[in-house]
Design brief:
By secondary structure, the chain is an all-alpha fold. The protein has a single domain, classed as ACP-like (Non-ribosomal Peptide Synthetase Peptidyl Carrier Protein, Chain A), CATH 1.10.1200.10. It contains 4 helices and no strands. Helix 1 crosses helix 2 and helix 1 packs across helix 4. The two termini are about 15 Å apart.
Amino acid sequence: MTSETSTPDERASLKAELKQAIVRGLRLPISPDEIADATPLFGEGLGLDSIDVLELVLELERSFGVQIRDEQTGMEVLRSVDTMADFVIRHRATQSG
């Protein structure tokens, strides 16, 4: 379980950081608070496209030190803020030992 590696407060803080990174990195005309944790980032959710994927991957690398190395991983990780948070938490857990 990914929740075992972080407290609820740490998880909430990470999600807030991720939302800020999404808005900043993609220059979205909305506030981070307008993005729900489970909102799909593509399609009917935020409506991001393939160009946004590249920008988002770069922003995650810059801001959180994680790398998305292939399309399959990207499709799983970039579904929502929740899935992005899970990925960052897993990455941090493997880095810390």
